[in-house]
């Protein structure tokens, strides 16, 4: 299994027509784990996009994760899968992908995190700490939930919800270490420079 404790900037990105140039740019900028988070396209399109992304991630020695489906993750030779509370079970992912695969699990409440700790997930996500368009209708959990979850966890906890170069140092100061980035990069006019700014702010705060 690829070690995750030293990986801090986790990009979740939907299908993009410019993926072949966008993805290397953000990886050069400092992103160190990537998920194809695409819930709306047919499986055939998800597979096509994943087959563009997986070899790029491999060239950068960065784990590539599929969303929701361990079967698709297996088909595209991803490093693992991320599932939510309403998706297939972590145990099912392990049955399909094996014990060495990365399996991530979303959590949004203390009760869910209690249950998650009993499972064989490689990492957890906590949040969104603020409401976000990528999680429509889901209220923010607040930073305290993510901090508490990380303090209790023996595995990395990636914080979701509105993380950017301006607020990441404050989140590190609160005790957080692992961050999911979505809009700050997917909506950036210069993704590589934005990724570098995120990485610089993060590394400065961690130091």
Describe the protein.
The protein has 207 residues and is an alpha/beta fold. It has a single domain, classed as Aldolase class I (TIM Barrel, Alpha-Beta Barrel), CATH 3.20.20. It contains nine helices and eight strands. The protein has helices at residues 19-29, 43-59, 70-75, 90-97, 110-116, 143-152, 168-173, 183-186, 191-206; strands at residues 9-13, 33-36, 64-67, 80-83, 102-107, 123-126, 157-159, 178-181. An eight-stranded parallel beta barrel has the order 1-2-3-4-5-6-7-8, surrounded by four helices. The protein is globular. It starts with 8 loop residues before the first strand and ends with a helix.
In CATH, the architecture is: Alpha-Beta Barrel
Task: State the total count of DSSP E strands.
Answer: 8
Under CATH, the homologous superfamily reads Aldolase class I
Number of distinct helices: 9
CATH level 1 name: Alpha Beta
Quaternary status:
single chain
Total domains, how many?
1
| Cα-to-Cα separation, first versus last residue | 27 Å
Overall, the morphology is: globular
Poorly predicted residue ranges: none
């Amino acid at each position: 299994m690829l070690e995750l404790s030293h990986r801090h900037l986790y990009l979740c990105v939907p299908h993009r027509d410019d993926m072949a140039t966008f993805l290397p740019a953000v990886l050069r900028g400092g992103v160190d784990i990537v998920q194809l988070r695409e819930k709306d396209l047919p499986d055939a399109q998800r597979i096509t996009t994943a087959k563009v992304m997986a070899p790029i991630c491999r060239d950068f020695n960065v784990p590539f994760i599929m969303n929701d489906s361990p079967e698709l993750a297996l088909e595209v030779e991803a490093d693992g899968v991320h599932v939510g509370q309403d998706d297939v079970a972590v145990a099912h992912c392990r049955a399909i992908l094996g014990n060495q695969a990365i399996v991530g699990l979303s959590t949004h409440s203390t009760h869910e995190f209690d249950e998650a700790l009993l499972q064989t997930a490689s990492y957890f996500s906590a949040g969104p700490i603020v409401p976000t368009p990528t999680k429509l209708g889901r209220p923010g959990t607040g930073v305290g939930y993510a901090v508490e979850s990380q303090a209790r966890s023996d595995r990395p906890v990636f914080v979701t919800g509105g993380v950017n170069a301006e607020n990441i140092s404050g989140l590190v100061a609160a005790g957080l270490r692992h961050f999911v980035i979505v809009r700050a990069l997917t909506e950036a006019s210069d993704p590589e420079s934005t990724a570098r700014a995120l990485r610089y702010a993060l590394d400065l705060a961690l130091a």
